[in-house]
Design a protein that fits this description.
By secondary structure, the chain is mainly beta. Helices cover 7% and strands 71% of the residues. The protein contains 1 helix and 12 strands, in the order H-E-E-E-E-E-E-E-E-E-E-E-E. Strands 1-3-4-6-7-8-9-12 form an 8-stranded antiparallel beta barrel. The two termini are 36 Å apart. The N terminus is likely disordered.
Length: 221
């Protein structure tokens, strides 16, 4: 009788815990972008003249998709592994130079990444789990500076590393709502060289996504 009672208690405890399984999700948020342009001129004799760098910041709406797998090692602690695709509308920034001429910078970005998060549930019940997550995101980022006055588009791209952090809920085992954030730590670069009589001009375009915050809906199978 004692064995049956213990088995019933363990079965009830297991039913309360969040379960392992695959998941998919959609997200929408607001993100920032840092832009920096550095230029220098190197003459045929090897002398280098650096021009003052230009830096700007912009922000815009972003949206994306996630898909992956989660597993729990205890009722409170688990992990998840997932792919994410993050897209966005154009970042726009109006710039007025020293001569009073106004230029609008337009940049569109997308990210493709593999993510791994540690999960911890502060509250766990039959119908609701509430907790937090912390993890890393590693992937590829591409930014397109849209050219003006017939100028070609410039596309800084490369590896992207970010830190994931947020709060999450799991409702009735299948539905989740998350407040997520991502902090980017790497820059993507594009270098353009132009040769003139007497030397070479090098311009380096740098882009970095310092932050992104938003809401995510997740469906667990």
């Amino acid at each position: 009788a004692l064995s049956f009672a213990l088995a019933g208690i363990l079965g009830a405890s297991t039913a309360l815990a969040e379960t392992d399984g695959a998941f998919v999700g959609v997200q929408a948020g607001y993100g920032g972008l840092k832009l920096k342009v550095e230029s220098e001129f190197k003459d045929d004799a090897g002398n280098v003249e650096k021009y003052p760098s230009q830096s700007e910041s912009a922000s815009a709406f972003r949206y994306g998709f996630v898909a992956g797998y989660k597993q729990f090692f205890t009722p409170e602690f688990g992990a998840r592994y997932y792919a994410s695709v993050d897209l966005g509308t154009n970042y726009k920034k109006d710039i007025t130079d020293e001569y009073g001429d106004k230029t609008t910078i337009k940049v569109s970005s997308y990210n493709i990444a593999a993510n791994a998060d540690a999960l911890y549930n502060f509250v766990s019940s039959r119908d609701l789990d509430f907790g937090a997550f912390l993890g890393l995101s590693l992937g590829y980022a591409n930014h397109k500076f849209k050219g003006t006055d017939g100028a070609p588009d410039i596309k800084p791209s490369g590896f992207d590393l970010g830190i994931n952090f947020g709060l999450r809920t799991n409702i009735a085992q299948n539905h989740g709502i998350e407040l997520y954030s991502r902090f980017g730590v790497l820059q993507q670069k594009k270098e353009i060289k132009e040769t003139y009589d007497g030397g070479e001009d090098t311009t380096t375009y740098k882009a970095q996504q310092p932050y992104q915050v938003g809401l995510r809906y997740v469906f667990s199978f």
